[in-house]
Design a protein that fits this description.
It contains 28 helices and eight strands.
């Protein structure tokens, strides 16, 4: 609540707070612009603060980071001056995000910590959860994986506490990405599967696409290329349906990687080029650069020297332009390697000189650079200079458990030993190489088997949950079953203006006594299936059938909406065309006729039972609707006065209403009732 505004009415403050709440929840520039316009006539510090906040969000969307930082700082300061702490927390959180995106990690961390303190004081668990998750991302980006893990797990616990499945899915996916970074692909696979299930529960197509693609990456890195391709294609197809060019660009690049791995160069090039084209549309230079590296490697494998050099240089120039110096160094190594393969050593040495101006820090990059330097020295026969460089790279790779890089370096040591004719050193290094190769192969095989085992385990769990869902869907209305699946422990709803319908088949006992059992079942199945479709079309919930009786209702709309929906179902039932099977007492098929009663009023609905669940509706209105059916006439819809009043309020032109006198109802006395009739066709 705002405490420092003296000159603003409560309605203006409420408008500002409501607008800020909407702005926090959207990323749409169009919606943000609309919210800004809503405040055009509002004055005062609260309105100023909200305007700064929205302008910050618009600048962030436009990637105008300096403007975004300035606007969020202004919003934070304005809200702080008037004591609007919730606004200050949101502005501080968003400021942290922009600082994080611009690699100002220390300032971003300070903002996140400040926002968490304020959200905690305000008991805003959702805010605490969101910022804690962002802190996890920051720690991940700075290589502090243990701190990241702790943040993600706390954020997940908060999200589960408040029942926010969307952010629980996001956080679980982040835990999967962190597990990948830690080299634990089995754990990553499990986290991704959990995230995927959550996204499916809330029907988030974007989330499903992203996590499916991430699962594909786990399969890819485990060498299971068929599963990787299947998941990448699923993610690609969802992205195309959603029109999400950013996610399609990423997945297309992953498809290029997978097709490269199985040596399908034609499809690899096709998807890499699709990825680059989409990254260009989105002005994503980082994405273009990464994909260009992959495309360069494909052309190198095909012996296309010119194309390979073109894409490696494109990657180098883009990485240098956007300041990703480690990736820039990797591009230099790719170019140098290409030149060495084509015996252009002078070109390789020239490009390696670019490294002198690059501050690369990742151990993985340092090892690649040192290995490339050593390779050039070996090529020129300068074995004494190459040896300490290779040994240093081996030590660094061992320290960080980069087994494949260690193996590559031992391979260079073997070449060195061959060059100086040192058989003993060759044997020693080859044994090290062979041991590492077997360890890598065995570890990869073990991971692959573990992922397959975990996949079978999770598939079994999903199948069991699906069976449980099907049982619930067969016993309960889908909307009610979905609530139970989402974790609602008790379904008990009160409706002030529910509309109830009862239907009974006229003459059922006399006709059915002359029919075979299968004829009765077939007829009722046909009737009830068609009536179910009437309910579905009109947002009406089928409650139950008892013998030849059918009950349904709607309570989630307004009084008039509920009555209109149930009236539409009642009229459709009255018009339905069915005939009694031959053998039910007549040589000519008789039409099946229905007696229908409807009523509006208060009602309670819920699920009863523990093992055998049943959804039902109770209340006086239910008794009235049942009485309307009992006292009605074949082929007509009998309604209480409250129901008719609701229809009249809706001014539905297709109906007319005929009074049919009063009906005695136990506990209520005589009540006026009406016939509901149709005067126009649908």
């Amino acid at each position: 609540m705002v405490v420092g505004e003296q000159n603003m009415t409560s309605s203006v403050i409420e408008l500002c707070e409501h607008t800020l709440n909407k702005a926090v929840q959207t990323r749409s520039s169009d919606e943000l612009q609309k919210y800004l316009e809503e405040l055009s006539d509002a004055s005062g510090s609260t309105a100023d603060g909200v305007r700064h906040f929205i302008r910050g969000a618009l600048a962030l969307n436009a990637r105008e980071y300096k403007s975004a930082i300035a606007e969020y700082q202004n919003a934070r300061d304005v809200f702080g001056n008037i004591g609007y702490n919730l606004g200050k927390a949101h502005a501080t959180s968003q400021l942290g995000i922009v600082l994080h995106m611009t690699d100002d990690y220390n300032q971003a961390l300070d903002c996140y910590r400040s926002a968490i303190l304020i959200f905690t004081e305000l008991d805003q668990i959702r805010g605490v959860a969101s910022v804690t998750g962002n802190m996890g991302l920051l720690y991940t980006h700075t290589g502090k994986f243990q701190e990241a893990m702790e943040c993600y797990q706390r954020a997940l616990a908060y999200n589960e506490q408040i029942g926010d499945k969307r952010y629980a899915a996001i956080t679980t996916s982040c835990l999967g990405q962190l597990s990948v970074s830690l080299g634990n692909r089995v754990e990553a696979f499990e986290y991704y599967q959990q995230s995927l299930e959550l996204y499916k529960e809330i029907d988030s197509k974007d989330g499903i696409a992203i996590v499916t693609g991430n699962i594909g990456i786990v399969y890819y890195e485990s060498g299971n290329y068929p599963e990787a391709l299947e998941h990448f294609h699923i993610a690609f197809d969802i992205g195309e349906i959603q029109g999400d060019t950013r996610s399609i660009a990423i997945v297309a690049g992953n498809l290029g990687n997978a097709y490269t791995a199985i040596r399908n160069t034609e499809l690899a090039i096709e998807y890499y080029k699709k990825s680059i084209a989409l990254h260009e549309v989105n002005e994503n230079k980082k994405g273009i650069a990464h994909v260009s590296l992959g495309l360069g490697r494909v052309y190198q494998s095909m012996g296309d020297y010119q194309s390979s050099q073109h894409y490696f240089r494109q990657a180098f120039n883009l990485f240098k332009e956007i300041g990703l110096l480690d990736d820039c160094a990797s591009s230099v190594c790719a170019l140098a390697s290409l030149f060495v393969v084509h015996k252009d050593i002078d070109a390789a040495e020239r490009i390696m000189k670019e490294l002198s101006s690059l501050e690369y820090t990742r151990p993985f990059t340092i090892i690649d650079v040192e290995r490339m330097r050593a390779e050039l020295l070996l090529y020129k026969g300068r074995f004494d200079e190459a040896k300490p460089i290779i040994q240093s790279a081996i030590e660094l790779a061992g320290l960080h458990e980069y087994r494949s890089k260690q193996a590559e370096c031992y391979g260079l040591m073997c070449r060195l030993a061959e060059g100086i004719n040192d058989i003993d050193e060759y044997i020693e290094n080859h044994q090290q190489y062979d041991t590492l190769a077997k360890e890598i192969s065995g570890k990869d095989a073990a991971i692959k088997l573990a992922i397959q085992s975990k996949d079978r385990e999770l598939r079994k769990e999903r199948d069991e949950r699906e069976k449980e869902r099907m049982v619930l869907y067969s016993a309960l209305p889908k909307s009610v079953a979905d609530r139970l699946i989402r974790g609602t422990s008790m379904i008990a709803d009160d409706y002030d203006n529910a509309a109830i319908l009862f239907m009974d088949v006229v003459g059922f006992t006399s006709h059915s006594s002359q029919l075979q059992a299968h004829q009765i079942i077939e007829l009722l199945t046909q009737i009830f299936t068609e009536f179910d479709s009437f309910c579905l079309q009109n947002k009406v919930i089928k409650v139950k059938t008892i013998g030849d009786s059918y009950m349904c209702f709607r309570g989630d709309g307004s009084h008039t909406e509920n009555a209109i929906s149930v009236a539409s179902v009642a009229v459709a039932m009255a018009r339905a065309k069915f005939t009694w099977p031959v053998g039910s007492g007549s040589t000519d098929p008789d039409p099946v006729r229905f007696r229908i009663g409807v009523a509006s009023g208060p009602a309670t609905a819920g699920v009863i039972g523990r093992k055998r669940l049943q959804y039902d509706v109770w209340g006086e209105t239910v008794s009235v609707a049942s009485h309307m059916e009992h006292t009605g006439m074949p082929g007509r819809v009998h309604a209480n006065e409250t129901f008719i009043s609701a229809l009249k309020a809706g001014q539905v032109a297709r109906y007319q209403y005929a009074t049919c006198g009063e009906v005695e109802i136990k506990g209520m006395g005589a009540v006026p009732t009406w016939w509901l009739e149709v005067i126009t066709q649908d």
